[in-house]
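Structure (tokenized):
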């Protein structure tokens, strides 16, 4: 008692616990979507006839069009040793590549419009570098700007696909695909039995000066 006044203690039920500390929730990483492709290849130019059972992981930010350009690139260079990279989730690795038995890289496959620094790095690491650019007129402008700077990279090849080709390829995309691919004299035919895409790859190739 102080100054003659009684003191009171609050009832236990009146004492509120301190609010629990909360931490912001981390966004869940989106998982890649798995695509399966049974690809029958008849490459008359290379005399390569083989059936492949492929698994492709499509990154959440990758489109069906880009996924199918990856598959197209595999078909053109088909080899049991070709490996697919992690795509858009791995900035350092190629989209696909082929090593020899000693681990030396024979082929580096790139998609889109890589910058000069990346192409120089690729050409220094691999015997052959092939870029599949697929955004039509924008790809043509990109290459016109880079071509003078890369004229000494004699192991570099650029394939500028015709406008709309990637969209046509994307229409063949499905989680499970049965595809046949025929190549003859630079002409490629890819079909699922109902829809077909035909590309003139011989006309699409562009090389730096000196090739």
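Design, position by position:
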């Amino acid at each position: 008692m102080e100054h003659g006044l009684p003191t009171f203690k609050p009832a236990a039920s009146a004492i509120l616990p301190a609010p629990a500390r909360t931490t912001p929730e981390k966004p869940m990483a989106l998982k890649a979507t798995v695509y399966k492709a049974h690809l029958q290849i008849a490459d008359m130019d290379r005399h390569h006839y083989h059936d492949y059972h492929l698994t492709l992981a499509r990154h959440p930010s990758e489109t069906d069009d880009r996924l199918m350009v990856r598959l197209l690139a595999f078909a053109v260079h088909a080899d049991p040793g070709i490996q697919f990279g992690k795509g858009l989730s791995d900035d350092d690795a190629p989209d696909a590549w082929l090593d020899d038995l000693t681990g030396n890289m024979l082929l580096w496959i790139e998609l889109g419009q890589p910058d000069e620094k990346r192409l120089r790095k690729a050409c220094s690491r691999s015997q052959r570098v092939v870029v599949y650019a697929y955004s039509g007129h924008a790809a043509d402008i990109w290459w016109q700007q880079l071509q003078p700077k890369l004229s000494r990279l004699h192991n570099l090849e650029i394939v500028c696909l015709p406008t709309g080709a990637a969209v046509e390829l994307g229409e063949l995309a499905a989680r499970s695909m049965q595809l046949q691919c025929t190549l003859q004299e630079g002409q490629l035919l890819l079909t699922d039995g109902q829809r077909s895409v035909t590309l003139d790859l011989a006309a699409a190739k562009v090389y730096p000066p000196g090739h």
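Reviewer-requested clarification: The helical segments are 64-76, 116-125, 137-146, 165-170, 201-204. The domain at 32-206 is CATH 3.10.640.10 (Restriction endonuclease-like alpha-beta roll fold).
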